[in-house]
Structures are given as C-alpha cells and as structure tokens.
Fold:
Amino acid sequence: MTGSLVIAGLGPGADALVTPEVSVALAAATDIVGYIPYVARIPPREGQKLHATDNRVELDRAKHALEMAMSGQRVVVVSSGDPGVFAMASAVFEALEGWTDAQSLDIRVLPGITAMLAAAAAIGAPLGHDFCTINLSDNLKPWPVIERRLRLAAQADFAMAFYNPRSISRPAGFVRTLDVLRQECRGAQLISFARDVSTPEQHILTVPLAEARAEMADMRTVVILGNTATRRVGRFVYTPRSVA
Ligand code: SAH
Structure:
C-alpha cells in the first residue's frame, strides 16, 4: 500500500466552515494527527486512529506523521484555520528537509478558512484594503523582531491582524504591543477583538485604540487593527477600497 500525507485546515470552528475537500480527506484517512483540541473536533470513525498530541512538539508530530505515511498509512495532519498560517504545514516541510526518501511521498496541503478572515467577515470588512498579519507569540522569534514589524507596518498604515495575542505565559507581550501601536498610530484608530469566531461563544468588541486594554485579548482571540481610514457603518466596521 502506498501511503499519503494530507495537511488540512479545519477552519475557525464551525462545521459549516470545513471545506468539502477537507471532509473527503478526513473520511479517507487511516490516521489523523494534531493538537488535542483540533483532533477533538473530528468525530471518531471505525478503523481510524486519532493521534492527539501536545502543541509544543510540532516538529515531532510532523515526523511521526511522515513515518506513518512512509509505512503505507493515509495520514491527515490537522490544524485549525488554515494549515499554512502559523500552523503544521511549515513543520511538515521542515521535517521533510532532512529526509530525502520521504520527499517522493504523495503530500498535499488543503487550505482552510483562517481565523482573521472569519473574524473580518463577522466584523464587516476591516481587511478591505492592504493589510499584514503578525503572530505575536515570541516562542519562535525574538521580541525585537515583532516590535520592528509592528512599527514599520503602523508607519505604512497597514491594517493588521494579530494571532496568538496574549497567553498566560506571556502576559507582558500584548501590553507592549498596545504601547507600540499607540506610539505609532492615532488613538482614534479602530481595533477589534474577535473571540471564538464562528462558534456559539463568538464575541466581537471594537474600540478606539486609545481605549484598548490587554485583557480584551487571549489565545482564543484574533485582533484586527484598522488603518487610518477604517470606520464604522451601522453595526459594522469596514476599510474603504481606496486611499485618498
Ligand atoms: N492556523 C490557524 C492559526 C493558528 S495560531 C488559522 O489559520 O486560523 C492560533 C491563533 O489563531 C489563536 O491564538 C487566535 O489568535 C487565532 N484563532 C484561531 N481560531 C480562532 C477563532 N475561532 N476565533 C478567534 N481567533 C482564533
């Protein structure tokens, strides 16, 4: 039997936002690998093995998935949202770099709806003009890199989406992020906190940057800062397509 490896995105949470392509791959899998809460979203199937692991060992998880595929299994590695956005696809390719035999495996990456796009849709259209995306976790990069990117993006008036904004182990990082943004942006600029997007617990809060507090974000929140033209219309927030 020839093995295969699919790296699939489960979307932000709602079953309706899992793509049909991903559902087909999940149904055909012999083995599903992923971080515990993501694997928990997959209903158990006869003859299918679920391998739920801790998030801190991404490279080990990728190697394990490749080993199973090399031994003939149909393996699906799952991420939330999109697997290429701060997630498992890069970890699998990193594991592949040192493993020439595995490079001829049947490997596919299946996209998913990433958190910022589901959040933007719930907010209105805050990402309607140029924007950038920054992972605020300093687990895999030093803080000065994050701060430099924040400052330059703010100076260029990009809207920004922030992933992993504030964890219990890094309480100071988002406080510093807000300080840097306040130094570089107008206090009136709108910032939205979108938590548990697409689930029954979804909660959206938009405030001017001057009123934002670090406690408004946690690891289940994606934060979207508008550019200087971003504004409210009714209960929505949007960024115009054009720049004056
Ligand atoms: N691959 C994922 C991102 C993984 S990083 C994706 O494409 O969405 C994990 C971060 O994603 C979280 O800390 C949070 O910032 C964001 N996130 C994931 N799902 C979310 C949801 N349903 N609502 C709000 N933020 C979410």
Remarks:
- Helices lie at 20-28, 36-39, 58-70, 88-97, 115-123, 143-155, 171-184.
- The chain has two domains: 4-113, 116-238.
- The first strand starts at residue 4 and ends at 9.
- The mean pLDDT is 95.
